[in-house]
Amino acid sequence: MFNTKFFIVLLFGVFLSLFFYSCSESNPTEDEDHYEAAGLLLKQGNAIFMRIFETKIDDNYNQSIILKTGSESLVFSVVFLNENGNELPEPTDANKSFDWVIDDKTIVILEYDNKNKWSFRLKGLIEGTTNLELRLNHNDHPDFKTPKIPVIVGK
């Protein structure tokens, strides 16, 4: 005797299994960038200004960024670090971009360097303290973000 209800449940289970399996597998024909950042260096020229690794600001380098009102910082270059703390080459995936969040944009602004997509300057607007979070975005969401970096603007 054929049980229609059992057959429908079984068929639904097979389709559901196939759906989840197909969603979990990556397409082998896609040239997907597997860029995994675990930290970053903020460099000024060849000198390391700040090192952030595994969500912590390294005590061996600067713990904050200090600016004067109306002045600009030197150019900061962002270099990402892998899970071993080694420098990664710049991301080449067109879907990867540099982004940031500033808690109080009345105190400081970030001026993006259009010539080098991994460089920027900060400009102190008024006296105060705010925080800066740097991000490596993949499309519209961050794959990596720093802890909040204190930015202090004084006279």
Walk me through the topology.
Layout: H1 4-24, E1 39-44, E2 47-53, E3 56-57, E4 65-68, E5 76-81, E6 96-102, E7 108-112, E8 119-124, E9 128-138, E10 141-145, E11 149-154
Parallel strand pairs: 4-11
Antiparallel strand pairs: 1-2, 1-5, 2-3, 5-8, 6-9, 7-8, 9-10, 9-11
Written account of the structure:
The protein has 155 residues and is mainly β. The chain contains one helix and eleven strands, in the order H-E-E-E-E-E-E-E-E-E-E-E. A six-stranded antiparallel β-sheet has the order 3-2-1-5-8-7, with no helix packed on it. Strands 4, 6, 9, 10 and 11 form a five-stranded mixed β-sheet that branches. Strand 1 (39-44) and strand 2 form a beta hairpin. The model is unreliable at 14-32 (pLDDT under 50).
**What is the makeup of the main sheet?**
6 strands, antiparallel
Low-confidence segments: 14-32
Shape, principal axes of CA atoms:
globular
Question: Count of helical segments?
Answer: 1
**Radius of gyration using CA atoms only:** 23 Å
Helix content: 10-25%
Question: Overall mean pLDDT score?
Answer: 84
* Class derived from helix and strand content: mainly beta
- Strand composition percent: 35-45%
The run of helices and strands is HEEEEEEEEEEE
How far is the first residue's CA from the last residue's CA? 88 Å
Strand order of the largest sheet: 3-2-1-5-8-7
Total number of strands? 11
